[in-house]
Amino acid sequence: MTRALASLALVVLLTSAAFALEVRSFPRATAPYAPSLGTALAGIIPGSFHLSYNGSAVVIEATDWTGVDLNAVQAQVDAAPADAASLHTKAAVDNTQGLAACLVEAMTRALLPVLNDARQNPTTVRSAITADQARTNLKAQIDVLGCGS
């Protein structure tokens, strides 16, 4: 079971006591990339659902199958990319690049007021900025930008 499917399984374990889940199986020769399939199915299956792969089919446990177009579900199961390490790596790189860009922006926003003040008032004597002050300013900018949330 992939890490993504294991994570989805944990969510179901935590919520299954509160909801009765109805199980349906959809044939598939290979394990799907769960994040892509989950996103595609979110627009088709109302409420919460859980995905797993049993070696020959995608098993979906859902709280509500009322009015769900099962052919549309099968089409999404068929169209989902196969689970591959490269897809997990790409998602991790995308998330890391987004976080890194946000942190660079936060550092720039924290540093610019200090630089601009020094440029506008070059003769003013300033006290050194401590590491704690720098971290506090950086954290404030991270909160403004919403990095990592």
Could you walk me through the main structural features you see in this protein, from its secondary elements to its overall organization?
The chain has helices at 3-15, 34-42, 70-79, 85-120, 131-145, and strands at 22-27, 49-53, 57-62. The protein folds into 2 domains: 3-83, no CATH class; 88-145, no CATH class. By secondary structure, it is mainly α. A 3-stranded antiparallel β-sheet has the order 1-3-2. The chain is built from 5 helices and 3 strands, in the order H-E-H-E-E-H-H-H. Helix 4 (85-120) crosses helix 5. The chain is elongated. The longest helix is centred in the last third of the chain and has 36 residues, at 85-120.
SSE-based structural type: mainly alpha
What's the N-to-C terminus distance? 27 Å
Q: Please, how many domains? A: 2
Number of helices: 5
Helix content: 55-70%
Radius of gyration: 24 Å
Got a strand count? Answer: 3
Q: What sort of overall outline do the alpha carbons produce when their principal axes are compared?
A: elongated
What integer is the average pLDDT? 78
| Fraction in beta strands | 5-15%
Poorly predicted sequence stretches spanning 5 or more consecutive residues = 5-19
> How is the largest sheet built, in terms of strand order?
1-3-2
Largest sheet: 3 strands, antiparallel
Order of helices and strands: HEHEEHHH
Structure summary:
With 149 residues, the protein is mainly α. It has 5 helices and 3 strands, in the order αβαββααα.
